[in-house]
Amino acid sequence: MAEKKYESVIGLETHLELETATKMFCGCRLSFGEEKNKNTCAVCLGHPGSLPVINKKAVEFAIKISLALNCSISSRTIFHRKNYFYPDMPKNYQISQYDLPLGIGGHLDVNMGDYVRRVGITRVHMEEDTGKLLHSGTTGRISESEGSIVDFNRAGTPLIEIVTEPDIRTPEEAKEYMTLLRSLLLYLDVSNCSMEEGSLRCDANVSIRPAGDDVLGTRTELKNLNSFKFLQKGLEYEIGRQIKVISSGGKVIQQTRHYDNVDGNTKPLRSKEEAHDYRYFPEPDLAPIFIADDMVEAIRSTIVELPEKKALRYKSDLGLSAYDADFMAGDRKLAGYFEKCLEHCTDAKTVANWIMGDFSALANKEKIHIAESRVRPDRLCGMLGMIEKGKISLKIAKTVFEEMFNTGSDPADIIKAGDLEQISDSNELEAIIEDVISKNPIPVQQYMDGKKKAIGFLIGQIMARTKGKANPKLVNEIIAKKLG
Amino acid sequence: MLETKQISCMDIAGSIFSRIEDIDEDINAYIRVEKESALESAGRIDGKIAAGEKVEDLMGIPVGIKDNICTKSITTTCASKILENYVPVYDATVIKRLKKRDYILTGKLNMDEFAMGSSNENSFFGSVSNPWDTGRVPGGSSGGPAASVASGEAICSLGSDTGGSIRQPASLCGIVGFKPTYGMVSRYGLIAFASSLDQIGPFSRDMEDCASMLNIICGHDRHDSTSIKTKTPDYKSFLKDDIKGMKIGVPEQLMVEGMDPEVKSAVGKALKMAEGMGAEIEEISIPNLKYALNVYYIIAPSEASSNLSRFDGVRYGYRDRTAKALRDMYKKTRARGFGDEVKRRIMIGTYCLSAGYYDAYYEKALKIRTIIINDFKKAFSKYDILISPTSPTTAFKTGEKMDDPLTMYLSDICTIPANLAGLPAVSIPAGLSKAGLPIGLQIMGDVLREDNIIRAAYSLEKAIAFKGVPNI
User: Fold this and answer.
1) CATH classification code of B9-293+363-464
2) Which residue, of A296, A315, A332, is where some domain finishes?
């Protein structure tokens, strides 16, 4: 009952580690899972006297992301210092952006099936990542550890923050937004977007209000939402909690809460009242960045066709269903494979069906990506051509494909080696069928008596004799003629 | 003389180190003396010269370095307990440039802790004395660099200037101190006090050595994003008797109230000389300069509060070992590692940047800074250089102003405007007071117009003919 009276208001803050060759402000390599503090220098360790220098590639990536999110690009943008003390911060300030971010005022249209939610993008800004704290002891918790060490390999990794307007209304929408955003970012080829490795991270601001109201309620900030599932579950729990608080006459306290994915609930981290005063001020060690229009246009021209547009094209030009088009376009690598296939055959729908059917099933079982399987696009199309021409049956094709998937072989070779070619010679088939009819008088009689099902037995016999290679269409035709 | 082999590098270095051994107990200009490695270098360089290698400027010359400029493998302390044992893993860009010229490092020079001070009394390693009167201060924050050159404990030295930290001690010690245009000398490896104001520059006995040093230390550095991309001129080519026809402005706001009359008269005399040599002198007014000190004491501490936050005991430097938890370790390390003046400025800066105060202080200070920059632009559209005293007084007595930070801050009233506007400026000796203390003359130029400053300074240097040497 109570739940019906409220709607939730959600805004997301996403952090993305860019996959540049080097860090944001120094020449150190980016790394994951390497020996601790291996990729560090005076700059990313915050040694006295060292100075930051902006990584141009990171700025280009940030512009690319901003453009893909329909943001306008600031012609002049500056960095700020965000000051707070923590051991994973080498300088005890983070070089970030504040009131003059790189990208502003964009949007992303999230397709929810029966409606589209337009999510406003407030800003896209650049900053640097922190190091990682590792607490000794068995629990890994700071309060129970003897000591801590800091690994600065991650410190200074280029980071992009994408902040939405509070336009999201449900946990499902939040999940779909993140799914779309991740797919888009993968298309841009700027990050590996791994939520497990932490290269894509998400915090959520959430509040509730009586449905239809336009005043915002007091919000909480949720942290540790490090998978699509946890994002949705965390929001569901928190919305439920806020509704309970308000329904029972209480007030939501503005605070940061931690999603505990074991207990499935959220716990307060710190309240905003005791939050940091970050003392932002313009970073005096870095000159403003001026971004010329021709630079923006040059970067825009490098952006490939993005999933939304691609899916539309798949529907209108290739005749794919909305579901199939979204599936194919949603993953950059898959779409690339799909389009490679279309260079070798024209029947897009059949290609899509095959990819989404047997191919996906096998790939999922082996836990590999379709685009990284052994099956070459030209060979997949070759096999589809054989089905179309009646050279192999659909049933045989499944066997052939499994072998292609396992070995990467040419379907023609597989068919030849296994003697799998379909028998479409009517004289040859007629002889076999006549033989089967003469040897099975009882089922023939049953069929004649009106038990139409008895024909199945006869066809089975024919298939057995031909090891499944008989062209089923021809078999049906001939047998109908003979018994008719 | 090195070229004609009348004297060897070893001779020069030897005399410098015996001077240091004789008098540094009284002066305390050095935090660390690098005698052994210096003599080794001297021998090596003598070998090069004997083998016929061309002798370039600075080759084999003993130079002292202010202890806030990073020297690889050699302790760099900022005169602070918090960095007492800090050994940099890299050389500052200026050090790399000096090394390329085969300079000889005499040692690391004393200073006010983190370059905060005007008397060199805020050093964890003890205060520096003025060679002209050891009961007086040498000025600050580059007290060590100034006192060492004035007393013959180094031929030249490098200091840093955030609000006058090169020019004011040069003035009080009777030598030449030059602050180049902001961005002309790389700050990479200079331990930051206030990033938008800090600039490295040389101390020397005369303008010729000063120009030689500028030739070596100036130039673009890709490791410093605020470094200017421009062709570096040959500063020595401006060493000409060429003040004739120059238009000189004398800002009345820098002839401050309460100025020592002897300082005023020395500056007056120098201006007369300039006029006599054909320069045009005009008194001018730059009204907004009256806000310079206030603006400076918001911007500099604000930046410092952030720059100095990295000294936390986590990665390097002093750590208080009695603390049991993180916050406690931060607090005790910083409370015990920093001196009073540094803590005072960190607190002022933290306050100025705080939510609710930022607009009233930092934001407003930035706006006035822009106004001052524009005022200077206007002035330099009419005048080639601006002349003023460097410091309103001669060297004051040790301890005299320590209990009164505000009076101490006034010592920099004439020098601060050049930092706010990023202008080049020099202090040259203008004579001695009756008490035998040096008086400094400041010449400021427009951005990147070091040429005008050097011409005027060179002409005036010859006309003034300051021959004073401290009797120590």
Assistant:
1) 3.90.1300.10
2) A296
Say if CB A171 and CB A231 are below 8 A apart.
yes
Q: Which of B41, B165, B186, B212 is catalytic?
A: B165
> Residue A260: which H helix or E strand, with range?
strand A255-260
Contact at CB, A50 and B354, closer than 8 angstroms: no
Residue B314 in contact with partner chain A when CB distance is under 8 A: yes
Domain count, chain A: 3
| From A50, A90, A285, residue closest to B225, measured CB to CB | A285
Of A42, A85, A285, the CB nearest to B195: A285
pLDDT-based confidence at residue A139 (cuts at 50, 70, 90): low
Question: pLDDT digits over B355-412, tens only?
Answer: 999 999 999 999 999 999 999 999 999 999 999 999 999 999 999 988 888 888 888 9
Note the pLDDT tens digit of each residue in B353-371. 999 999 999 999 999 999 9
Per annotation, catalytic residue among B41, B66, B142, B212: B66
Strands A116-128 and A158-164 come out as antiparallel
Written as one letter, the residue type at A162 is I
The answer to whether A448 contacts chain B (CB < 8 Å) is no
Domain boundaries, chain B: 9-293+363-464
Question: How distant is the Cα of B334 from the closest Cα of chain A, in angstroms?
Answer: 12
Tell me, what amino acid is at A98?
Y
CB-based contacts of A14, cutoff 8 Å, min separation 6: A161, A162, A163, A178, A181, A200, A201, A202, A203
A27 to chain B: closest CA residue: B223
A123 forms beta bridges with A104, A163
Single residue among A296, A326, A354 that ends a domain in this structure: A296
Rounded to two decimals, what is the model's pTM? 0.90
Host domain of residue A105: 2-296
A289 with A363, same domain: the answer is: no
Domain shared by A130 and A7, yes or no: yes
Where residue A276 falls among pLDDT bands split at 50, 70, 90? confident
CB contact under 8 A, A49 and B92: yes
The predicted-structure confidence for A169-179, as pLDDT tens digits, reads as follows: 999 999 999 99
Pairing relationship of beta strands A220-223 and A76-77 according to DSSP bridges = unpaired
Of B76, B226, B354, the CB nearest to A277: B354
Q: Does A230 share its domain with A323?
A: no
Mutate to test the interface with B, among A281, A286, A290 (most CBs of B within 10 A): A281
Q: What residues of chain B, 44 to 73, have a C-beta less than 8 Å from chain A?
A: 68-70
A442: phi then psi, degrees, rounded to nearest 5: -65, -55
A-B contacts at Cβ under 8 angstroms: 98
Q: Decide if B165 is catalytic.
A: yes
